[in-house]
Design a protein that fits this description.
The protein is an alpha/beta fold. Helices cover 42% and strands 12% of the residues.
């Protein structure tokens, strides 16, 4: 039986490093933002490498969902799927993920937004999908009768083994210390947009040190962080800690 892990996050939340970590397991296949093409085609959003992404991906919502519910592409027993909240702008929603194991990756809004602005000129609340994140979390918690696993990027960086071993336990898979390091460079499983977004990850060989100290943001970005913070704090209450 395939363990399908849907890891939900916003952009610039350590999500690609987490995909590298799970991709280092011998028993795991990884998928990189499978609904991104659907999102771009449906919404008309102007993102870096928009046309290349649409051309490279299946952009039919129902077809993508059917694939994610089908056999793992390489036959692996664990299928780690990296998902972005703001991509879920079409007909696919929570009820379509029956049988998946959901987990939630969060990051302090100030650091998330600062990282995003290093790649794009401006940021908006809709770029992060945190309202959808909170809604999805509550629905999954109601279904389970307890909080689904949540991990905070700063905790992962501070204690990778401590947090990820707890995450594996919560997901029902064995801990594998191969998750702590990986070879540098691109992967065949990376989305075509990696050329714009994944420069730092492609140079990495593991999780770096946590960022500490205050974050400087322009006033409009600070207001955006304040709007995002209640959603972050709601999930942070349930973060797995080392």
């Amino acid at each position: 039986m395939t363990v399908r892990i849907a890891m939900w996050s916003g952009p610039r939340n350590l999500s690609t490093a987490m995909m590298r970590s799970f991709g280092s397991r011998a028993d795991t296949f990884v998928s990189d933002e499978p609904f991104y093409g659907c999102f771009l085609k449906t919404t008309g959003a102007e993102h870096p490498m928009r046309e290349e992404t649409i051309a490279a991906m299946d952009c039919d919502w129902h077809s993508v969902m059917a694939s994610l519910r089908g056999p793992t592409p390489d036959g692996s027993p664990v299928w780690y799927q990296k998902h972005m909240w703001h991509h879920m702008a079409g007909p696919i929603g929570y009820d379509d993920f029956e049988g998946f194991t959901h987990a939630f990756l969060i990051r302090e809004p100030e650091r998330m937004i600062a990282s995003y602005l290093r790649k794009r000129e401006a940021a908006a609340f809709e770029n992060f999908g945190m309202d959808r994140q909170a809604e999805f979390f509550e629905r999954e918690a109601d279904r389970l009768g307890h909080a689904p696993p949540v991990i905070d990027a700063i905790d992962v960086l501070a204690s990778p083994e401590g947090v990820l071993s707890k995450l594996c336990d919560a997901l029902g898979i064995a801990w594998d210390d191969a998750m702590l390091s990986w070879a540098p460079g691109p992967r065949e499983t990376d989305g075509v947009w990696a050329a714009h977004w994944y420069g730092a990850v492609e140079k990495s060989t593991g999780f770096g040190p946590p960022e500490l100290g205050p974050v400087e943001l322009p006033e409009d970005a600070r207001r955006l962080a304040d709007r995002c913070r209640p959603y972050y704090e709601r999930l942070a209450l349930f973060s797995l800690r080392p």
